[in-house]
C-alpha cells in the first residue's frame, strides 16, 4: 500500500508538506500542490478521508442539488457539463463532489438535511433558482454555505449566484430569427416556474414587442413527453404554420425535431428551429441546430470556485457572477438567401 511517506519521497518534499497539500493549506504554493497531487494520482495514493474528517471536522466535499428526477438528469447534457466544471475545480482544490436529486421538495430537503447532519458535505451548489424554494430557505436559515447556479431572484445577499443573462440571450436569438425573415415565431416551453424559463420567455417577448421588424410571437407550454408534444405540433401546424420554433432547451428541442420528422415537416425548409444550451444533442441533430451557447462547464467552474471560497471563508461578501453567452448559427435556421 502506498503511504504518505512514499509520495513525499517521490515528490522530493517532506511528509508534512504532502499532508498540508491534502488539506489544501494556503502556505503551500500552487506549483507544489499540482506536483504532489499529480504524483498522488500516478501512484494511486488515496488519503484516509474519514480519519481526516474526524480531525478537521470537514468533509472536503461539495454537494450538488438537482431539482428533478434522475431520468431527466441522465438525459439532459446541461447537468453533466455543469457537473464536469464543478468537479474539475473541486478536484484542483482537494474537494470531491456528491450529487443529490429528487423529484419533490420534501424528499430533496430531507436528503440535504441528512447530508449536513452526517457531516458529509461542507457546502452546496443548487443547480436551479426558483421562488419559495424550501432548500434555499433552509440553507439560508442554517447559515450553511451554498451557491446557486441561476438568477438572484430576490437580490439575496446570503448566497452567491452564478448565471447567464438569460433575458439578453433570449432577446438576441429572437432578434436573429426576425432579422433572417422569420416573422411568425413560437416559443415552446415545458416549464415556467424556474427563473431561467421566466427570463427566457421575458427576453423573447421583449424582442417580439420591441422589434422594428414585422412579426408576431407566442409562447406555448407543453409537457416534455411525446403525447403532449405531438398534440401541440398537430395543433400548431393545422391551425397555422409558424416560421420558426424556439425551444427552452436542447432536450425539448430534440423531442420536437423528432416529431417534426415524423409529421413530414422539414427543417429549415418548412420551419426553422433554434434552442438554448449547446451540446452533442444540438451539434449532431439532423439538421444541426442553431443554439445559444450558455457555457455550462464555465457555470460549473465559477460555482465551484465560489463555494470553495465560501467554505474556507464563510464571512466573505457574497457576489453574483454572470457568464456570457454566444449564438451558434447552424443549418436549422438556414435560408437560401444566406448562401
UniProtKB/TrEMBL annotation:
Residues 319-339 are annotated as: Disordered. SUPFAM superfamilies: lambda repressor-like DNA-binding domains, Periplasmic binding protein-like I. It comes from the Bacteria. InterPro entries: HTH_LacI, LacI/GalR-like_sensor, Lambda_DNA-bd_dom_sf, Peripla_BP_I. One of its GO terms (molecular function) is transcription cis-regulatory region binding. Pfam families: LacI, Peripla_BP_3. Keywords: DNA-binding, Transcription, Transcription regulation. Coiled coil: none annotated. Residues 2-56 form the HTH lacI-type domain. PANTHER family: HTH-TYPE TRANSCRIPTIONAL REGULATOR GALS, LACI-RELATED TRANSCRIPTIONAL REPRESSOR. This is LacI family transcriptional regulator. It comes from Salinicoccus cyprini. The lineage of its organism: Bacteria, Bacillati, Bacillota, Bacilli, Bacillales.
Amino acid at each position: 500500500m502506498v503511504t504518505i511517506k512514499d509520495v513525499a519521497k517521490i515528490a522530493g518534499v517532506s511528509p508534512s508538506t504532502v499532508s498540508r497539500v491534502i488539506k489544501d493549506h494556503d502556505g503551500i504554493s500552487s506549483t507544489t500542490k499540482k506536483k504532489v497531487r499529480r504524483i498522488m494520482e500516478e501512484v494511486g495514493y488515496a488519503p484516509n478521508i474519514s480519519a481526516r474528517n474526524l480531525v478537521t471536522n470537514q468533509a472536503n466535499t461539495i454537494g450538488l442539488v438537482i431539482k428533478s428526477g434522475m431520468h431527466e438528469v441522465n438525459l439532459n447534457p446541461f447537468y453533466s457539463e455543469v457537473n464536469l466544471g464543478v468537479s474539475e475545480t473541486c478536484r484542483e482544490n482537494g474537494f470531491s463532489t456528491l450529487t443529490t436529486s429528487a423529484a419533490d421538495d420534501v424528499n430533496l430537503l430531507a436528503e440535504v438535511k441528512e447530508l449536513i447532519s452526517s457531516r458529509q458535505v461542507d457546502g452546496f451548489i443548487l443547480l436551479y433558482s426558483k421562488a419559495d424554494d424550501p432548500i434555499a430557505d433552509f440553507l439560508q436559515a442554517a447559515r450553511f454555505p451554498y451557491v446557486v447556479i441561476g438568477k438572484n431572484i430576490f437580490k439575496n445577499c446570503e448566497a452567491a449566484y452564478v448565471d447567464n443573462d438569460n433575458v439578453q440571450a433570449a432577446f438576441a436569438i429572437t432578434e436573429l430569427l426576425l432579422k433572417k425573415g422569420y416573422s411568425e415565431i413560437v416559443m415552446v416551453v415545458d416549464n415556467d416556474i424556474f427563473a431561467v424559463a421566466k427570463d427566457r420567455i421575458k427576453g423573447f417577448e421583449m424582442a417580439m414587442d420591441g422589434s422594428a421588424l414585422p412579426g408576431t410571437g407566442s409562447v406555448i407550454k407543453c409537457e416534455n413527453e411525446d403525447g403532449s408534444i405531438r398534440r401541440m405540433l398537430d395543433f400548431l401546424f393545422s391551425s397555422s404554420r409558424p416560421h420558426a420554433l424556439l425551444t427552452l432547451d436542447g432536450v425539448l428541442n430534440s423531442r420536437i425535431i423528432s416529431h417534426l420528422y415524423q409529421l413530414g415537416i422539414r427543417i429549415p425548409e418548412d420551419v426553422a428551429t433554434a434552442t438554448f444550451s449547446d451540446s452533442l444533442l444540438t451539434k449532431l441533430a439532423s439538421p444541426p441546430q442553431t443554439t445559444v451557447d450558455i457555457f455550462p462547464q464555465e457555470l460549473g467552474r465559477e460555482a465551484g470556485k465560489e463555494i470553495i471560497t465560501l467554505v474556507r471563508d464563510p464571512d466573505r461578501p457574497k457576489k453574483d457572477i454572470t457568464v456570457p453567452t454566444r449564438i451558434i448559427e447552424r443549418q436549422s435556421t438556414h435560408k437560401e438567401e444566406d448562401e
